[in-house]
């Protein structure tokens, strides 16, 4: 029984790995940290898999683990519980897209973690305010304010580079 | 910038070409299974523990106030708390004005802890709470000891920082505590929300940093200077229905009974030879058996610049354990007659090897190794190096599944 459950878990994680890594990358802005975050997330998912596998929305459950781990790990006094060895250099985007990608990455990095998590949930994961609030464990009002602040922070971070290009 | 523009930017960034994934599903299964086993052990280890969990919320709220008679077991842990059998009389620390218990606080704290030996333990916990769990972790370079205890949906986490690891700024009622972590980073500041009653005569303050649950409504902290320039932190995660005053009362009592200089070592199911010069054990995770033994589950070793260069996760083989073979990265090898999977990543600028074996002498073995460290891949074992994950495996001496045969000296 547990062998079949574990096989289901492995199959699920393999099928969602790319998606999880991309969401984690948006939160962390580097693939090394993103992989660490996903590693912790899927470990926690395994711990709760007997319950999680029966849920209607497993993706939502694992997404919540990911975001709460991200926010918790940033505050945590015991961060880096799972250490993956080795440094992974980020692949630079090819050609003329590279500067634009770096600009967006830097702009996102300039947004405080909770606001960044809110932006990613709302505008990458396409969650509405109530769903984002549930994922973050906060009120809809907080999501709204964090969204507004996050958008403003990102706008501020992108404006200087836009101005620079016009000169 | 409108919302549509942000969607486009985020999608574009997420579509950036990704390097090969380092996420290791075998490692997730191994560690997840370890955590699950611990939870099951606690849940099934004692009918007392199971029964107590149901009343945990109520128990957390109803801590007797000053002057209320407390019988030792009424609020005592009762189960699986190392050193708790010698719990100071529960009544000595009743209410918010936790009174001193002679000898509990150290005069001086060390500047570095031994990751194989807990420096502190709970002397008292609310009924139903049991110590250990996934967050039970000891480390040396960040100087923290983290002991978790939980019951139902509530949890308490104790972190003890070594001397000099933390700094405080600000007036007592507005203090901000910042601590240096294992990996060289700095913790998020814990800001005082008010001055707390002294803990055994030492200064203390409250904080509501959202550390455990991510919600300030659910997390409360008590922070106190347990020795000069040395800080302990108690975090409690409870439902918002639990009044803050009650949580504070409980935290005061738990804090007053924390026992330092605990000498109960962790027992490991193996010993390992050939640790490279300059490497030390940097962190360990452990579980707690129903009889109160500390059982090693994970161990990290490395040089100062890479404290997690080698990770060992070794435990009795659980049912259904298996190792994942990844085409292009993995190969089958034999370890003590058992089939094992060796995974090697040799991308430019990084190197990683893992060895997973599901049934070697009744043990599940998972070895993770950063092969960018000079000592890990060459020279070979016995010549000051580890010889890769296979070399590590060959230098492991497994002690079987019976904890009676395990050792408190895993590095020789």
Q: Major sheet of chain B: size, sense and barrel closure? A: 17 strands, antiparallel
Q: How many distinct domains of chain B?
A: 2
List segments of chain B where confidence is low: pLDDT < 50 over at least 5 consecutive residues: 38-103, 141-145
Q: What oligomeric arrangement do these chains adopt? A: heterodimer
Give the strand content of chain A. under 5%
Beta-strand residue fraction of chain B: 25-35%
Largest interface: A-B, 70 and 76 residues
How many distinct folded domains of chain A? 2
Largest sheet of chain A: none
**How many individual helices of chain A?**
8
**Series of secondary-structure elements of chain B, N-terminal to C-terminal:** HHHHEEEEEEEEEEEHEEEEEEEEEHHE
Q: Average pLDDT value of chain B?
A: 71
Query: From the coordinates shown, what is the CATH architecture of the largest domain in chain A?
Result: Orthogonal Bundle
Q: Could you tell me the number of beta strands of chain A?
A: 0
- The shape of chain B is globular
Helix content of chain A: over 70%
> What is the C-alpha radius of gyration of chain B, as a whole number of Å?
23 Å
Give the CA-CA distance, first to last residue of chain B. Answer: 61 Å
Which CATH class of the largest domain in chain A is shown? Mainly Alpha
Structure report:
- By secondary structure, chain A is an all-alpha fold.
- Chain A contains 8 helices and no strands.
- Chain A has helices spanning 2-28, 31-47, 49-52, 58-75, 97-109, 113-123, 129-136, 140-166.
- In chain A, α2 (31-47) crosses α4.
- The radius of gyration of chain A is 17 Å and the shape is globular.
- Chain A starts with a helix and ends with a helix.
- With 412 residues, chain B is of the alpha+beta class.
- Chain B folds into 2 domains: 36-260, no CATH class; 265-405, Protein Transport Mog1p, Chain A (3-Layer(aba) Sandwich).
- In chain B, the strands form 3 sheets. Chain B has a 17-stranded antiparallel beta sheet that branches. A two-stranded antiparallel ribbon of chain B has the order 1-12.
- In chain B, β10 (219-227) and β11 form a beta hairpin.
- Chain B is globular.
- Chain B starts with a helix and ends in a 14-residue tail after the last strand.
- Mean pLDDT of chain B is 71; it is low at 38-103 and 141-145.
- The interface between A and B is large, with 70 and 76 residues.
